[in-house]
Amino acid sequence: MIFIVIRIDVRPDKREDFLAGITRYSAQVREEPGNLVFSCFASVERPDEYAVLANYVDQAAGEAHVTSEHAQWFFGWLPSVVASVPRIVYQELPGDPWSEMGEVKLES
């Protein structure tokens, strides 16, 4: 599985544009074959910081994503709304790395 986290600092005056664009893009990415997760989260401490979490089944799915028409649009559009170049963590993980968190038990 491909595991990606992207930290995006948005220009305060472009926040609404970013939210509209990332909403559009997220819906498109979720429709891709091989996409497992694509979600954007707002920081609770910094109002203009967002994190994108993306998972793909394998390298081929990730490569298909990067070359898609909507990804090319996003990569061209993003510089118009960000305050700095986004930061990324990209890892290829073996197997199915999602498992339950052992430190948390549901109340009955």
Shape: globular
Order of helices and strands: EHEEHHE
Q: Would you identify the regions where 5 or more consecutive residues have pLDDT less than 50?
A: none
Strands of the widest sheet, in order across it, are: 2-3-1-4
Structural class: alpha+beta
The biggest beta sheet reads: 4 strands, antiparallel
Strand coverage percent: 25-35%
Radius of gyration: 15 Å
Number of helices: 3
Mean pLDDT: 95
Instruction: Estimate the helix proportion, in percent.
Output: 25-40%
Work out the number of β strands: 4
What does this protein look like?
With 108 residues, the protein is α+β, with helices and mostly antiparallel strands. It contains 3 helices and 4 strands, in the order βαββααβ. It has helices spanning 15-30, 59-67, 69-77, and strands at residues 2-9, 35-42, 49-56, 87-92. Strands 2-3-1-4 form a 4-stranded antiparallel sheet, with helices on one face. Strand 2 (35-42) and strand 3 form a beta hairpin. Helix 1 (15-30) packs antiparallel against helix 3 (69-77). The longest helix has 16 residues, at 15-30. This is Antibiotic biosynthesis monooxygenase. Keywords: Monooxygenase, Oxidoreductase. Residues 2-90 form the ABM domain. It comes from Pseudonocardia oceani. One of its GO terms (molecular function) is monooxygenase activity.
